[in-house]
Write a structure and sequence with these properties.
Length: 785
């Protein structure tokens, strides 16, 4: 071996290599050739394709999505963090299709999350701690499964990938005080802001809280606090070109729709809280026989919270009872910060936090309480990495065995998350024709939005599709966005040039006329006739661009330009670049006082632990990665996951196959979770509503109704699988002790005149012997103590 090769070999971080190798198991769900159709998969896939089309026209930082809203356009890229779409566009430009681009994005995000968490954990607890933290983070159910597959929220997944790198770079700056580390710390904020609007704010708040906490308990941090916050401020300043227009031009679109709908949901927040039993529980087995779509895993992961709790308990007890501090004072402060942050986020996801969500408005921007599972996974992983420190006190053999077991724990418990049922995957087409067809038939939400939040504010009524424009966009470039259907006689209009943000026409008119352009007006659209500015007026009520064209022959140019707010934002970003360069040069010229970070010694050999865990995980996959062990496949008419099987027939429409009940012994004010398993041999004739009543023989003391049974219309039922139906009911605080019946029923109002539903037409319930039981299922007995 040459001298150079020896040096390279000696410098290799084998713990890092082992971490990445163990993270490869997380890519097993990507073995399917198709894409998992999560909640938002279609929206983000079509945005990626639209970004790539803009790139093809030379618009590398586009504002306008030309195809959206039947081809009238939308400023979605002006408001929504575009990093995931840049990645998708780059992959597609290099020859990948959108499915391959998304699969590559998921793979690199999961590997990147493990890598970033390893680097941060290594800086805090050494290589062994970094590896353990990385596996706990990368294999947390929310990051591993819910984000990339159930939700299909690739931008938010990217935010969780970037955040550990941000924390690592600020930890490096804290340790060195060098200009180059300040540069990297500031630059790390850029991809965080570009990844996901909402989660970037939440994670940045966690970063700032961590810096303030460190400064409070560590004198060395206080001496460098200025540079830490300068780096954070510079990072935010660099991104002013993006976030400042989003903040100050929010009234130019209908972002307020999100706030209004969120406000309406306050009374229904219980729908989005996670009962403690589910939050702390094991990951449920995926059932290929469930027809609801891909499963939502809203648990922390037993390995994650178990290892985090173990570290806090052991380290804390060693300091309190044995008076043997395993950590330095600053490290105890780190432990306290992540533990308190984890407890706070844990509480905010429980139904007991309902009052906080209702009364503390800023939380409403998170929309779903369970969204805290992502930041919570980071805090739990950071705590889990501390276990490597107390393992040093064990005999070497015992320490290595225990460490390998800890590495294996999050991997082994993630086994049910490594399988995706084929019924939840499908090909994906993102051509313009496919997108416009989806908008028209309702299979794709208009503008790739849930609430029309990026619809320009001047659009009061969304016009229907213009067939000529749809046909031209579907056929390829260049479409002509001019409305030719209402041109007066004597007008000729020739399109000379067109891209998504610019159109040029040659106009000849015998008289003055008003031209309507089939593009929604938005702040920044400009028009010139023969080089002279022309006033644009949005049409009413459709908000389309209109402008007055004088008689004669003219050269008309329409383009999307800047605004004063965007000019100020761009200037702030440029000033931040200059300030960052100046600060970096000042720090580099100073003789840096490098803080000697006491890296924990490594009596553990992480690479050998990784090898042992990897071999064990391979063995588990060979033994248990099969139907019946890692996942289920309920035959039609059965629900294998149901804890309590049942056999109730409701009319001739459907059957109740079983149910789960979180607890049958409760106290007043408790929340109970009920899961029902429904099956229909044929799609029901009507869309049915459902009710769950807690009754002592009279009117229900607690209840929950759903306008759609199993959250599905009649057309959403299928004969080849059951539907899972989840309810969370809060009991009254003054509920008397005693035994109560849980009653379940279904009804429809579709056979009654509008406004005269009453109790609806309820289906008669038959038991397994065919005996009529009335119009409700006597599901179970609930004892209130």
């Amino acid at each position: 071996m040459t001298e150079i090769a020896k040096k390279v070999w000696m410098r290799l971080d084998w713990s890092l290599i082992g971490t990445l190798a163990l993270c490869l198991f997380a890519l097993l769900p990507l073995a399917t050739p198709d894409i998992v159709h999560g909640h938002d998969t279609l929206l983000h896939a079509h945005r990626m394709a639209e970004m790539q089309r803009s790139w093809a026209h030379g618009l590398l930082l586009p504002t306008w999505a030309e195809t959206f809203y039947y081809g009238y356009g939308s400023p979605v890229f002006h408001y929504y963090s575009p990093l995931a779409y840049y990645f998708g566009a780059a992959a597609m430009t290099l020859g990948a299709d959108v499915v391959s681009a998304i699969r590559l994005l998921i793979a690199l995000s999961l590997l990147g999350a493990g890598l970033g968490m390893y680097l941060f954990g290594r800086a805090l607890w050494g290589g062994a701690g970094g590896m353990l933290a990385a596996l706990c983070y990368g294999y947390s159910p929310y990051l591993l499964y819910t984000e990339p597959y159930t939700r299909g929220d690739y931008p938010e997944l990217l935010a969780f990938t970037v955040f550990p790198f941000v924390m690592w770079r600020f930890e490096r700056l804290l340790g060195s005080g060098r200009g180059r580390d300040l540069l990297w710390a500031a630059l790390s904020i850029v991809p965080l802001v570009l990844s996901h609007n909402l989660m970037a704010v939440a994670l940045f708040a966690l970063l700032v809280g961590w810096l303030l906490w460190r400064a409070l308990f560590d004198a060395a941090v206080r001496r460098r606090a200025l540079w830490l916050f300068v780096a954070a401020a510079l990072g935010v300043g660099l991104m002013a070109y993006f976030w400042l227009p989003v903040a100050l031009e929010r009234d130019a679109v209908r972002i307020a729709n999100v706030q209004e709908i969120t406000a309406d949901r306050r009374r229904n927040f219980f729908e989005f809280f996670i009962p403690a039993q589910r939050l702390f529980g094991l990951s449920a087995h995926t059932d290929a026989g469930a027809a609801n779509g891909i499963q939502m895993h809203l648990n922390m992961g037993v390995g994650q919270w178990g290892l985090a709790a173990l570290a806090v308990i052991v380290v804390g007890c060693a300091a309190v009872f044995r008076r043997v501090p395993l950590l330095a004072r600053a490290q105890y402060a780190q432990m306290a910060f992540f533990a308190l942050s984890a407890l706070a986020m844990l509480f905010l996801m429980l139904p007991a936090a309902y009052g906080i969500w209702v009364n503390f408005t800023p939380l409403n921007y998170m929309v779903f309480p369970w969204r805290f599972l992502g930041p919570l996974a980071f805090c739990l992983a950071a705590l889990a990495g501390m276990n490597a420190l107390w393992l040093r006190a064990l005999p070497k053999r015992a320490a290595h065995i225990a460490y390998a077991g800890m590495l294996l724990l999050p991997l082994a418990l993630a086994l049910p998350l490594l399988y995706i049922p084929p019924r939840d995957t499908a090909p994906l087409e993102t051509s313009v024709a496919a997108y416009l067809r989806g908008e028209r038939d309702g299979s794709i939400s208009l503008g790739t939005t849930a609430y029309n939040e990026f619809l320009p504010a001047t659009v009061y009524i969304i016009p229907g599709p213009t067939q000529r424009l749809v046909d031209e966009l579907s056929a390829g470039y260049p479409p002509d966005p001019a409305q030719r259907g209402n041109l007066p006689s004597g007008v000729t209009l020739q399109l000379l040039e067109h891209n998504p943000e610019r159109s040029v026409w040659q106009v000849q008119a015998e008289t003055d006329f008003r031209l309507e352009v089939l593009i929604f007006y938005f702040a920044g659209w400009r028009a010139e006739i023969d080089g002279q500015p022309v006033t644009i007026t949005p049409s009413e009520p459709h908000g389309l661009i209109t402008l007055l064209v004088p008689a004669g022959e003219h050269h008309l140019t329409l383009w999307l330009g800047s605004t004063p707010v965007r000019d100020v934002a761009n200037t702030l970003s440029l000033l931040s670049v200059a300030a960052m360069i100046a600060v970096v040069l000042v720090l580099e010229r100073r003789a840096p006082v490098v803080r000697q970070i006491e890296t924990p010694s490594e009596p553990l050999l992480p690479q050998w632990g990784a090898l042992a865990a990897g071999i064990a995980q391979c063995a588990l996959l060979l033994l248990f990665y099969r139907e019946g062990s890692a996942w289920l496949n309920s035959p039609p008419g059965q629900a294998l996951p149901a804890r309590y099987p049942a056999a109730f027939q409701l009319g001739d429409q459907m059957r109740l196959l079983g149910y789960d009940l979180s607890s049958s012994d409760v106290y007043p004010g408790a929340q109970i979770e009920i899961v029902l398993y429904w099956y229909a041999p044929q799609p029901p004739a009507y869309t049915y509503a459902s009710f769950v009543h807690i009754s002592g023989g009279g009117p229900p003391l607690a209840q929950l109704d759903k306008p759609r049974l199993a959250d599905r219309p009649a057309s959403g039922w299928t004969r080849d699988g059951y539907l899972l139906d989840r309810y969370i009911i809060t009991l009254p605080e003054n509920m008397p002790p005693g035994e109560y019946q849980i009653l379940v029923g279904v009804y429809t109002c579709e056979m009654r005149p509008a406004g005269e539903c009453g109790n609806g037409d309820r289906l008669i319930v038959l038991d397994a012997q065919g005996r009529a039981l009335g119009d409700s299922v006597p599901l179970a007995t609930l004892r209130v103590r």
